[in-house]
Amino acid sequence: MRFTTPASAPKHRPSQQRRRIGRGWLAVAAVALGTAGVATAAQPSDSAAATSAPGYQQDDLRRDTSALQALGITGVQARVTTASGRDLVSATGVAVAGTNRPVPRDGYFRIASTGKALMATVVLQLVGEGRLSLEDTVDRQLPGVIDGNGNDGRKITVRQLLQNTSGLHDDLPGFDTPEEYYKHRYDTYTPEQIVARAMKHHPDFQPGTGFGYSNTGYVVLGMIVEKATSRPWQEQVESRILKPLGMNHTYLPGTTPTLRRPHADGYQVFASGERTDVTEQIVPDLGGYVSTTADVNRFFQGLLGGKLLSEARMAEMRNTVPVDKRLEAIWPGGRYGLGLVNRPLTCGGSYWSHEGGEAGYITLNGATGDGSRTVTVSMTTSFNDFDKALRQHKAASELVDRALCDTSGNR
């Protein structure tokens, strides 16, 4: 039970590492929805509107993963973990395009922004220990880091960073064409450089007056954790979450651009329609976590089951605000807590999650309020075309909904 970085990836403190941050699913959604409109996108599809029949079984999961594959997704793997500990697992499609190699049922994949829930958990543990306060300002912890063009670290709190209400603008490099991918897949940035890019822009709104999904805000949180603990934030995740929960298959690749085996390759379908294998790339530490469906389910079970946070801290995490109209299109009725998303279930009640998207890998997940039933679905194709990406997201959301509706614990 240990958290390791491959031998080929040198271990450094994040302030010394150089990282590339890619354009994740939520960033793509925010850009596309800014011009595409949201009136029809916010409506669930007919198949999602019907309450799940009791007894979601292996055949149901296989049907739902096959429906995802039919959308043009190269490979899909999904796992439903029930209250009894029994797992339903399905893998459809192929691990490598153009071959008959099956998708591994326990394969590694990049979890991208699901890592934000890990960071939020560490921050709230530090709050519980009195080493941080949710009302601490950024400037108190990192004097002068947030400054310029109307950005003011004296007015942004830790709570606002966690809840995406800070107003910090994202300016994250990515790739829109295969040529850009091949040119920039090994590009790296320090956390300070990522923050500096955001400082070239005015805030999206004044702190606390709106909602705006900000990867940059979570980069700042990692810097704050390091300042508060005098240790790399990755070590805090390892010692506080991964080891206690036995998440033995969750790790950071560091500067190693490949994934451990077994894994399915990831593909990006660009606006031109060209499908490119984008498995090999360097992504930032927080967004770069690699995991398995079993480990992601184990995390949400542990978090919502009370193994990581006190009741008081868990209540803070569940204190939500509405998402903005753009994210409402992909999270109908969604609300954002402190590193957790709350979404309604068609059968009543709601569930908790934090999905993630990086070039080539899209992850959706969900858990009932007590963590007794969890589901994670990983897809190895991402689309630059927003309509296709939205269909993919809605179909995966329907899988999560149906799997979680087969339980009385829909809190």
Task: Name the features.
16 strands; 411 residues; disordered N terminus; alpha+beta
Q: What can be said about this structure in brief?
A:
The protein is of the alpha+beta class and 411 residues long. It is built from 14 helices and 16 strands. Helix content is 34%, strand content 14%.
Notes on the structure:
This protein is of the alpha+beta class. Helices cover 34% and strands 14% of the residues. It contains 14 helices and 16 strands. The strands form 5 sheets. It has a 5-stranded antiparallel beta sheet with strand order 2-1-15-14-13, with helices on both faces. A hairpin with a 2-residue loop joins strand 13 and strand 14 (361-367). Helix 3 runs antiparallel to helix 14. The longest helix has 20 residues, at 386-405. It is globular, with a radius of gyration of 20 Å.
